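Below is a complete specimen:
___
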Amino acid sequence: IHKLPIVRDRIQHDVLKDRLKEVVDKYADDMTQRAQDMAVYMEKVFNQRTDDNAGFQATLKCHKNQCDSDCKNLIRDYENAVKSVIPSGLRVQPDMDTYDETAMLELRTSLGVLKEELLEKEADQFDAFEAVLSVLDDNLASGRNTVTEALSSRFDEMRQLEKQYADDLKNRLLTYFDDKTRQDGEMTYHRGGIPDGIARLLENKDECIKVVGEVSEFRTRKLDELEELHKRVEDQRSKTTLESAQKAEYARNRARAFEIHAYCERQEQKLNSWENAFDGI
């Protein structure tokens, strides 16, 4: 907004400079204030979005920590059961007196149950993620709608300000040309320093009013473009936040599933190794 072309004190015509300075300065000050208000509002929006994301991450972490704790307890119980059947240590030698076929069958059954429970815990964790993500999505959608409405309202104010500015300029210029006509066309300003094109323009009422209108239309289009840009950015930010969270959770979920399968395979190999050690005894 602050990059919109705002003409201030560049009117070289002595008479017009005095007549238009008040209008130009008021427009510049009002538009600058609107831009500053917009910046403050968007900073609040950013802070609110940051707080929402922090809340989302904290809730998700709480669910994850609980899931990790439950899984560790399940694994600990299983490994304690293994230790009670399979002795550990480098010097342990297979001894038929230490082999318990029933206990080994129970361990295999327990391993299958453990794998199912771990995968179920992970599925619960993923369900919790989707529920928390849904809340975040709702918050983002609500915030996005609020921001969109606020942007529309604020840019409407700036468009109205632009329109009022153009109307005021036209009125001042019409008054100037009327006064100039009553003075029988005598110029009441010095041409020194004024480009010929501008000097000729200031002698043509219709062309001058037309230029003011065209410049106003140009600035209004710029406001329209800025409004659409702000709205697109808000939409993209919400989309990026959700997609980033989903991508991270999907990657974590896949890694966790692979980890569970790898752990259970290692445990099965341990059971197989212990049983194979008794072959031929």
Q: What stands out?
A: The chain has four helices and no strands. Residues 1-12, 184-192 have pLDDT under 50 and may be disordered. The first helix runs from residue 14 to 85. Helices lie at 14-85, 101-182, 196-201, 205-276.
